[in-house]
Design a protein that fits this description.
This protein is mainly α and 324 residues long. The protein is built from 14 helices and five strands.
């Protein structure tokens, strides 16, 4: 094993400590892209309690920036980045397609583009979306500050270049999602997991709890723990009719979310079918504490660890495919 391969393996092992946050299938790629200092910074941010989604985005953006910088300059990402490198980043990612058709040298150089595509870091043709470029610059700025350094991210030249580049790129806005998961689609998803297997019970509870509680984020569903659940007094199906059947009610303590801190102590209520599905899953899986939604191996064994947000995304996609 060469010295370089040994360093990559060591970084991969260190990234294992972040396996609940970083996508496991990208661990080896990130280990090859990031430096030792990068990994140390990410571990420090995790220990400081930075939100999982934010940390995941920072790791992804950092990996892209390191790869781009090596291809564009031949060197690792410098800290702090000089103003010229920030301007180069904007020029490589926000360019005018009309000008590119006339001048092949306009925008990102062909060898840099080919290198990023080879590493599966660049997929879409054309210039980047302005929002993506601005997000990566923001991540770059945050990581610079966390290293105790000051960058040129507020430089007038960078602001001017961004403004002009966004205007030149003329990229049409696109909807983020072509089709939202509405009640009719949710019904089909629940039909797809109507079996008697343990994984069906988990997925039914997951889908019902996630959508019935107001549309929770994947990270919030993954972070849900038994200790966050509390039984409430049953409510009647028709509050105006004393003879209507009572429905089970459960409150979920949200804790720390993207829009609330752990100290806000916000709750949401589940009523009826979602409560029944959630309690049925916990009983069948014999879960009395810890993470609510967990991995299940091919033999039906329930893991002690929680599902990751990426796993929840894959579950939803798999059930969508089964539902047609």
């Amino acid at each position: 094993m060469t010295i370089g391969e040994d360093s990559i393996l060591r970084r991969a092992e260190e990234l294992d400590a972040l396996d609940a946050i970083l996508p496991f299938d990208r661990r080896d790629q990130l280990a090859a892209l990031l430096t030792d200092d990068d990994v140390a910074t990410l571990k420090h941010l995790a220990q400081e309690g930075m939100g999982e989604n934010t940390l995941r985005a920072l790791a992804s953006d950092l990996g892209y920036l390191e790869a781009w910088c090596r291809l564009a300059t031949g060197d690792p990402l410098p800290w702090p980045a000089p103003e010229a490198l920030l301007l180069k980043f904007v020029a490589h990612h926000l360019w005018d397609p009309v000008k590119r058709a006339e001048d092949a040298a306009h925008g990102m150089p062909a060898d840099v583009e080919a290198g990023l595509r080879a590493e599966r870091l660049l997929r879409s043709p054309g210039p980047h979306a302005p929002g993506t470029v601005q997000r990566r610059l923001t991540s770059w700025s945050i990581l610079t500050r966390w290293r105790g350094l000051t960058g040129a991210f507020g430089a007038p030249s960078l602001k001017s270049a961004l403004r002009l580049a966004v205007r030149a790129s003329n990229r049409p806005r696109q909807r983020k999602s072509k089709k939202a998961v509405t009640l009719d689609i949710l019904t089909k998803l629940l039909e797809a997991c109507a079996g008697d297997r343990l994984v069906d019970a988990r997925d039914r509870a997951l889908l019902l709890a996630a959508f019935a509680s107001g549309g929770r984020r994947r990270s919030e569903v993954a972070a849900l723990r038994v200790e966050d659940l509390a039984d409430e007094e049953p409510v009647r199906a028709n509050p105006a009719d004393e003879n209507s059947p009572p429905l089970p009610c459960l409150s979920i303590r949200l804790g720390r979310t993207k829009t609330a801190t752990a100290d806000d102590d916000e709750h949401v209520l589940l009523v009826g079918r979602p409560v029944t599905a959630l309690k049925s899953w916990l009983a069948e899986a014999q879960i009395k504490d810890g993470p609510v939604f967990r991995r299940i191996d091919q033999w039906g064994n329930v893991d002690r660890r929680a599902l990751t947000p990426q796993s929840i995304n894959l579950i939803l996609k798999a059930r969508c495919e089964q539902a047609g």
